[in-house]
Amino acid sequence: MKRAFIGIGSNLGDRRKNCAEAVERLKKIQGCEFIGCSRWYLTSPVGMEDQNWFVNGVACLDAGIPSRELLGRLLSIEAGMGRVRTEKWGPRVIDLDLLLYGTDILNESDLEIPHPHMHKRRFVLAPLLELDPDVIHPVLAKTASQMLKELKGEDQQVTLLE
Fold first, then answer.
1. CB atoms within 10 A of CB 30
2. For residues 130 and 38, what is the distance between their CA atoms, to the nearest angstrom?
């Protein structure tokens, strides 16, 4: 089993409901044990700023399936929830990103682990910290706590939802 962290986000429709639905679907992935999910955060968009704000969180699974198979399941969940990929960083009903998969490092055209931008994104690091502040980024050799403390970019607004 490998500990996997999944970034969850939505900025279309009922964003919080979409994220909660994604979590319910994550719980049903065969070969994986659902460990937990962070609280939800309201976050400003990054990359393409002229769009709705996101609801974001992070889920944790113990995965007994290969990373590529897990990615396939995540993409199936997205498709099943109506995600249509039209433009990079554009609006989406659901977004599931494989952030970490144990201490694996993978750099392929369609799958990079750890996620190549996770250490630059407050909307990933803040909820990740809730689940495991001491999880180590296998490339940077830094904990989630360290990465969040070092993060620049005060333009990334992240607010805990009640």
1. 8
2. 6
Q: 20: Cβ–Cβ under 8 A, 6 or more apart, which residues?
A: none
pLDDT in tens, 37-91: 999 999 998 877 778 999 999 999 999 999 999 999 999 999 999 887 776 666 8
CB 55 within 8 A of CB 9: yes
Q: What is the pTM of this model?
A: 0.94
More confident position, 17 or 153: 17
Give the catalytic positions in this structure.
83, 92, 95, 97
Residue 50 sits in which domain range?
2-160
Structure tokens at 64: 């007994």
Per the listing, tokens 């070969």 go with 31
Tell me how many domains the chain contains.
1
Report the alpha-carbon distance of residue 83 to residue 69 in Å, rounded. Answer: 19
